[in-house]
Amino acid sequence: MKVDTTGTDLHYTSGRRLCDWYRQPLGQLLAQCEHQALDDVIGELFGYQQLTIASPWDYDYRNKGRIQYQYHLGLGSMRVRDMDIVGAAEALPIMTDSVDLLVLPHLLERSDDPHQVLREANRCLVSGGHLIIFGFNPFSLWGGWRKLVSWRGLAPWNKRFYSVFRVKDWLSLLGFDVLQEQRMFYRPPINHEPIMRYLGVMEKIAWPLPTATYMLLAQKRDISFTPIKPTWARVPGMLPTGLVEPSTRGMQRKGIVDE
Fold this sequence. Notes:
Blueprint: H1 6-22, H2 25-42, E1 46-53, E2 66-75, E3 85-87, E4 99-105, H3 114-124, E5 125-136, H4 141-149, H5 164-173, E6 176-184, H6 193-198, H7 201-204, E7 213-220
Parallel strand pairs: 1-2, 1-4, 2-3, 4-5
Antiparallel strand pairs: 5-7, 6-7
């Protein structure tokens, strides 16, 4: 049976453009701020399984915190060197209640259905698991610039920005508690390294302007239930850690199509 990868190929193209943008001077400076924020949060979290979906950064997620296993899921049908799994964010090939930490770096902007992305995140996370979301702030100089140049189709301006208030509302409806909100990068969207270095003082004095991006740390609420004795059965096709669901939920592992 062939797997339809058209949607994931579009995600791959969009993600590739964003990856290229993060290698430009402006993107590199922003990535430094976002990496530092992520390092600070991950270092305080515990768990067994961590999954990052379609990271646009050149960032090593391995051994960053106290979570035992780290995986990276890519979007698209093409083989990517640093991806462990390939699939669709709206239909994750991941077992229900199997992930302790899920990281979505600027993924909602790249999805045509951000609500479904969050529903899938909720499904995959264990009760009490953590979700980290990075997003661009539409109520900022960056959001204003996006309105002027989005027609050009260039990343990151070619996608819709979702406000931190809207994302927090979505999370609340799904049963998440937002534990931390961090806003970062006061500098304007000027892709000129000497000027941006000069404007670095804006970060130090907390310039009274809206920031370019934000990070949210949310936790899936615990669900009380009456335990029952499980019926154990062998589930074929899983990774040793039991993370990947043995199905074709919009996925290809290492570029292999199930037939």
